[in-house]
Specification:
Blueprint (H helix, E strand, L loop, with lengths): L1 H14 L20 H23 L1 H31 L4 H25 L5 H27 L3
Helix pairs in contact: 2-3, 2-5, 3-4, 3-5
Length: about 150
């Protein structure tokens, strides 16, 4: 009994300790999504470029496939950015579980789309794959460039 009272007293003492100092949140949380307008503009330009290249090389089906590939990546990456920014603003402890859930959801959906696309005879399926690859490479490169530009001291 005495041991349990001693443990309860120690826990009460621990509960009274102040929380550790955490770095303050930025006054304006919009910095988390400040890159989205620029990335959306680059993605729109890439979508038009991919559709043009697809049309020239394979006709309307390839144009649609290439544009759809870029659009899939744009929507997927934008969704991830918004979910992560929201979780970080509301409760940072939710960041990892929600980010992982979002990635599992979007890559699961992408896997379904690609597995269906491989089994079809649609003539735009190769262009869809190229559009996805181009979207991932361009989005990743532009986002890396953006954050390098923003984080570099003047």
């Amino acid at each position: 009994m005495e041991f349990q009272r001693q443990q309860a007293a120690e826990q009460a003492d621990e509960d009274d300790r102040p929380l550790p100092d955490l770095p303050p949140l930025p006054a304006d949380p919009r910095w988390r999504v400040a890159h989205l307008p620029f990335l959306s503009a680059v993605s729109a330009a890439l979508l038009l470029f991919a559709a043009s290249i697809g049309f020239v090389t394979g006709g309307p089906s390839s144009a649609l496939g290439a544009a759809a590939g870029v659009m899939i990546v744009t929507v997927s990456f934008t969704m991830s950015t918004l979910v992560i920014a929201w979780a970080d603003t509301v409760r940072p402890a939710l960041l990892m579980p929600l980010a992982l859930f979002t990635y599992v959801l979007k890559y699961g959906a992408l896997g379904v789309v690609l597995s269906y696309g491989v089994s079809t005879t649609w003539p735009g399926k190769n262009a869809l794959g190229y559009g996805i690859v181009a979207g991932v490479v361009v989005w990743t490169a532009v986002q890396a460039w953006w954050f390098h530009k923003v984080s570099r001291p003047n």
